[in-house]
Design a protein that fits this description.
With 389 residues, this protein is mainly alpha-helical. It has helices at residues 12-24, 33-44, 48-76, 78-95, 101-129, 134-154, 156-163, 168-176, 180-189, 210-239, 246-271, 275-294, 297-302, 304-319, 322-325, 328-360, 368-377. Helix 3 (48-76) runs parallel beside helix 5, helix 4 runs antiparallel to helix 5 and helix 12 (275-294) packs antiparallel against helix 17 (368-377).
């Protein structure tokens, strides 16, 4: 098989498997933290803000390391960067359970650095391997990412923790080591594409362009809704005396991510770059999460379903834009800038929510900054720039 510029590329089934397997570890090890958070917090004596940062700290690292990942891609290629990053995810994620509080947070931050290299590498590979099927390629690796979210968030309590005999450290190790499998598959079944003739070699995001900031702010809204909800779900339910609903809540919030990705296989090429679907999804997410906070019991819990669905579909729509607006390493640069800005927001907004909850003593208050930020950026979704032909 050759790409649109005559480059050798893996066959279509191999491309799908490689993109999906790598996408799986964009979020799987991150989303192991929310279900284990109560156990870890009790074991190590963590407060609300520190407990929430077990989920949001890796997302902050995406911002810190994204530009470095773009530079690395411009030097050794997206495929080689991806192999190294997956190996580092396995190592650093496993190290989270190797010590006490300091080791936990250092390893969590290092894991975020490794994931930061995966994020721009995947859209760059799509422009090299599958330039005529960018929307489909994005949907494939995003499906892998969202399946990883579902596996990590929903199977940790009922499956992995019992397999680890209740030891949260061993449970993290069992989730981490399979990240080596897609790295090995990339090494065996692919080779680095030749440099695209349209590839400028640019690796630094063009910070002076409003598009980078606009896309980052919108991406931050989808991430804040999703990661913030996961980070504080256990605390909100616990304050209402509904801790027994945590497992079901995680399934409703994260299981919808898989449904979102399946829907976007069909809808991505029609909705990507259009304002109306993005605005409607943002309003759906804000409304649903508000109702979850205000309404106790099963009716409120049910609101996590549309909230998770909206966040997942928003994320896929945003992730599909860099390979459509740019090519080659310019894709990595735009993606690094967008994901970097979004990652800072994904960390800062939920962290602010945790601080508000600590100050007020009301766990439900942790969701308020997330809702306020998301509402403020809705107008940015209006009139997205037209996609290049």
């Amino acid at each position: 098989m050759t790409s649109g510029h005559g480059q050798a590329a893996p066959s279509t089934p191999v491309i799908i498997l490689l993109l999906w397997g790598a996408g799986l570890y964009l979020r799987l090890t991150v989303m192991v933290a929310p279900p284990l958070a109560p156990v870890i917090a009790e074991d190590l004596g963590l407060g609300e803000a520190l407990t929430g940062s077990l989920t949001t700290l890796p997302i902050l690292m995406l911002a810190v390391a994204g530009i470095g990942a773009s530079f690395l891609i411009s030097r050794i290629g997206a495929r080689n960067t991806l192999i190294i990053a997956l190996c580092l995810v396995a190592l650093t994620s496993a190290m989270r359970g190797a010590g006490e509080t300091v080791t936990l947070f250092i390893a969590t931050a290092a894991m975020g650095f490794a994931i930061a290299a995966i994020q721009p590498a995947l859209p760059t590979l799509i422009t090299q391997w599958w330039p005529t099927r960018i929307a489909l390629g994005t949907a494939v690796y995003m499906n892998g990412m969202l399946v990883g979210e579902v596996l990590g968030s929903t199977l940790t309590i009922p499956l992995m923790l019992p397999l680890a005999d209740g030891n949260w450290r061993l449970a993290i190790l069992l989730w981490s080591m399979p990240a080596l499998l897609p790295a090995l598959a990339l090494l065996l079944f692919s080779r680095s594409p030749a440099r695209d003739r349209d590839d400028s070699g640019r690796w630094m995001p063009e910070w002076r362009k409003p598009l980078v900031w606009r896309l980052g702010a919108l991406l931050g809204a989808s991430g804040a809704l999703f990661f913030g909800s996961n980070a504080y779900l256990g605390s909100v339910l616990g304050a209402r005396g509904e801790s027994d609903l945590l497992a079901l809540g995680l399934i409703l919030l994260n299981g919808t991510q898989l449904l979102a990705s399946l829907l976007m296989f069909r809808l991505a090429r029609f909705w990507t770059g259009r304002s109306a679907p993005l605005i409607l999804l943002m309003l759906l997410g804000i409304t649903s999460l508000t109702l979850f906070v205000l309404v106790p019991g099963y009716p409120g819990l049910a609101m996590l379903f549309p909230a998770g669905l909206a966040a997942g579909m928003m994320l896929i729509l945003m992730a599909g834009l860099p390979p459509l607006y740019a090519r080659g390493t310019e894709t990595a640069a735009l993606a690094a800038g967008m994901f970097g800005i979004g990652a800072i927001i994904n960390f800062a907004v939920p962290l602010g929510g945790g601080l508000v909850a600590d100050i007020t003593g009301a766990p439900g208050a942790a969701i308020v900054p997330i809702l306020v930020y998301s509402a403020l950026v809705v107008p940015l979704a209006r009139g997205l720039p037209p996609l290049p032909r």
